Amino acid sequence: VIKLAKDNFSVILQGVTRFEVSGFEGAEPFLAAHVRAVPDPTSSDVELDALVMNLKDIAKRVVKLMPELPKEAGALVDSVTEAGHLADLITSNLELEVSEKQDVLETFDLKGRTRKVLQFLSRQLEVLKVRERINTQVQEEMGRNQREYVLRQQLKAIKEELGELDDGGGDLDEFGEKITKSKMPEEAEKAARKQLERLKGMQPSSAEYTVTRTYLEWLVELPWAISTEDHIELKEVRRCLDEDHYDLDKVKKRIVEYMAVRKLKDDKKGPILCLAGPPGVGKTSLGQSIARAMGRKFVRVSLGGVHDEAEIRGHRRTYVGALPGNIIQGIRRAGARNAVMMLDEIDKLGRGIQGDPSAAMLEVLDPEQNATFRDNYLAVPFDLSRVVFITTANVLDTIPGPLRDRMEIIQLSGYTDGEKLEIAKRYLIRRQLEANGLRPEQAEISDAALRDIIDHYTRESGVRNLEREVGRALRYAAVEIAEGKAESVRIDEADLPKVLGPLRFENEVAMRTSVPGVATGLAWTPVGGDILFIEATRTPGGGRLILTGQLGEVMKESAQAALSLVKSRYESLGIDPAMLEKSDIHIHVPAGAIPKDGPSAGVAMTMALVSLFTNRTIRSDTAMTGEISLRGLVLPIGGVREKSAAAARAGLTRVMLPARNMKDVEEVSEDARRRLEFIPLETIDDAIAAALEPAKVAAASAAA
Question: Which of the two ends of the chain, N or C, has the fewest CB atoms closer than 10 A to its terminal CB?
């Protein structure tokens, strides 16, 4: 008994033997009872000896796995020879429940008690083995991590000494901060943090580490919450458009209307504008002007030649080298979620075995769907509803119907020569002076030289080639100044052969139509309008019709209809029927390497045949277009705006077109309307009266 404090004592008791209670005497002042001692039997047998041996063996193994026990514990176990004493000693040192120890204490049968202790001890051994295995694994992992940490610190120190330390590949915790700062939606943030946790558990040398890190970089660098504030002032919009583009009044008017609606309407789901027209007329630069007027970022995405849906919607991350689609890449380049995105050459979308990219564009351009646009690479939705989409196209026919329905078409026609002259003076010369390091006072191109460049060195609807030729002329001036031959250079019309070489194009309308059997037609092409010569001649034969010039089926049928119409009117036209029966008719359309088709050359073919058989030339200042019927009616056609611009560029002054197309003249540019006289045609008789020159009395048909 040990006294600890005033009324506290510590009592150490030693058990001597087991006993049975035969009766209680009382509980006060302490519990008292009559007991009978039950000592353990001293005899043993083979089974008990085996149990003792097993008990000692397992006990010593347990001692080895418990470093907190003293080394003498194993020797103590060996020194005990009595089975009961050994079982009690081991039980007292095991971590057992009180009920389990009480069960051992109440077991008088020596073999039964030894078996119970052996069972408890075996369980303890298994627990210790598992603990040892876990400790070993933990130590190995800790050792490996510690070794990697030391090696990385050494590598970092080496790179610092060599000046090659990559600051961008530092702590992954920076990703967590970037995820928070990006203010991405909940679904995207959840995906980002999940990938970040996976990344922390990967080895940097593994391939999956690079893939996951690249994915996280894309997520945190997208402008989830970055927007530019709109500053839509209609005066500023008009100023930007006028500053960057000459004429195009109707196009500018529609863009101003578009801007006015966006300013007044809270709902930002406006129409998708599609700027359609030939190359070089300013479609892409119009998009840049719109972005500048709105105060938004501008990004251009080229769709020409795209034939894989994944280029729009992105590749799944399971593919090697996977990246988001062009739309998400464009948003990242712009750095704002409400940028102006120019989808260039949407009519050039292809279709391959990998899918139809135009189908993916349906979701991109649909205001009802693009708020949750899901790129395959990101695998989380991104809101495209704030983006202002503007598309461009040269040809509308190749755009699928459902995609075209989502866009409002704004047509841009080709420029006339007068418009090109103004564009060159206002924009192109200034831009090329700057590009070639010249000041305005150092180089000058006269108006006459510019007109000559337009007429004889370029033949296009737009102004790209014109700008190239202006650049060539100014580079000639730059060489003269750099060599010290002159302080300033003025390029006149007479200098052009020396500067740009011989003339490339001649005005051959008057020359070609100077003989009977030649008519000037008008054609529409994907790059704008053009003039088309229809030549007819006759040779002795049996009335065959020969067609050359790589004509399509529709154009061949127009020629057949034209010949039948002329034959049916031989009396009113004064044509000898024997001449029709004994002549083979050959109709040729020059530029034979270029395929041609369409019904709009019907009037020109008919007039060429009438001119041939009546021996009357067609006016050299007149071009014509229109489909004909066998009854002589002139039917409406398309492309009036482009065809009229081509006639004005070619120096013609009269255009004959179907009367039902006169309403389309309003769409023709003001400069072309001012330079052209439009003659409506109800029937082929109107064309004959307006186009044919008086008959040459004494002349034979030069084309016959």
Answer: N
Confidence of residue 167 (pLDDT cuts 50, 70, 90): very low
How far apart, in whole angstroms, are the C-alpha atoms of residue 166 and residue 160? 9
Q: Write the CATH number for 243.
A: 3.40.50.300
Residue-wise DSSP of 279-304:
TTSSHHHHHHHHHHHHT--EEEEE-T
Same domain for 251 and 271, yes or no, is: yes
Q: Is 64 helix (H, G, I), strand (E, B) or coil?
A: helix
Point out the catalytic residue in the list 297, 558, 643, 644.
Answer: 643
Is beta strand 518-525 parallel, antiparallel or unpaired with respect to 407-411? Answer: unpaired
pLDDT at 352 over 80: no
48 touches 75 (CB < 8 A): no
Q: State the pLDDT at residue 267.
A: 63
With respect to residue 478, please indicate whether it lies within any of the assigned structural domains. Answer: yes
Q: Is residue 561 part of a domain?
A: yes
For 234, how many CA atoms within 13 A lie in the half-sphere containing its CB? 13
With a pLDDT cut of 90, the percent of the chain lying above it is 35
Of 600, 611, 644, 669, the active-site residue reads 600
Strand boundaries in 638-688, DSSP class E = 654-658, 677-681
Question: Looking at the structure, do residues 491 and 520 belong to the same domain, yes or no?
Answer: no
- What is the arithmetic mean of pLDDT over 31-58? 84
d(CA 417, CA 422): 9
Range of the domain at 462: 417-500
Q: How far apart are CA 639 and CA 623, in angstroms?
A: 14
Are 559 and 590 within one domain?
A: yes
Q: How many structural domains are present in the chain?
A: 6
Q: Which of 411, 432, 464 is the last residue of a domain?
A: 411
Q: ∠ CA(299), CA(301), CA(303), 5° rounding?
A: 165
pLDDT reported for residue 430: 93
Identify whether residues 515 and 496 lie together within a single domain: no
Residue 378's closest CA among 328, 414, 418? 328
Beta-carbon contacts of residue 412 (< 8 Å; ≥ 6 apart): 248, 251, 275, 276, 277, 278, 281, 282, 283
471 with 565, same domain: the answer is no
- CA pair distance 294, 266, nearest whole angstrom: 15
* Same domain (yes/no): 535, 493: no
For 100-126, how does the pLDDT look when each residue is reduced to its tens digit (9 = 90+)? 888 888 888 888 888 888 888 888 888
Query: Are the CB atoms for 562 and 684 separated by under 8 Å?
Result: no
Active site residue 600: yes
Of residues 469, 476, 447, the one with CA closest to residue 280: 469
691 vs 305, residue with greater confidence: 691
**Residue 157: inside a domain:** no
Separation between Cα atoms, residue 470 and residue 448, nearest integer Å: 13
Predicted TM-score of the model (pTM): 0.66
Q: Are 391 and 275 in contact (CB under 8 A)?
A: yes
**Structure-token match 């020194």, residue found:** 79
Contact 523, 278 (CB under 8 A): no
* Residue 643 among the catalytic residues: yes
Are 51 and 34 part of one and the same domain?
Answer: no
